[in-house]
Amino acid sequence: MTDGDAPGEDADSDAPTAAELLGQAGFDADSNVLTRRQAEVLALREHGLRQADIADRLGTSRANVSSVEASARENVEKARETVSFADALSAPVRVRVDEGTDLYDVPDLVYEACDEAGVKVGYAAPELMKVVSDAAGDAVHGREVRAELLVGVTADGQVRVRRAHEE
What we know:
It is built from 6 helices and 5 strands; from the N terminus they run ααααβααββββ. By secondary structure, it is mainly alpha-helical.
């Protein structure tokens, strides 16, 4: 057994160990929002293992693996939200898109704000609508913006979209 291996690790000797997967991905527990166990579970899940197989490999229960995975995914989502927030704060262009706005009107709103700030957008109108729609998820349905959005454009023209949150 090598460092990082756990009981049942030999059950599927063709599959990499959690330690190998973390090493390949460059995981550093000291600078990560995930615990080592959370990273192990996510790495093994992303490698296609079922929760029961992971439980066997790590010497724990499937219920524990499920709980660890849920916590890990929540931490990843919080980290993404933090990065999105930081990007929004530093973006020289910030456009509020009100609920009820037609998606087809969004490019003009963004282009106008970018012109005022002297920032070039890296997307043509159809691409920009797709970026906004994809990033907004269920906040956009068809052509209707169903929840207020914040569209930020970085100095290099990258578009960042997030839901506006009322406090």
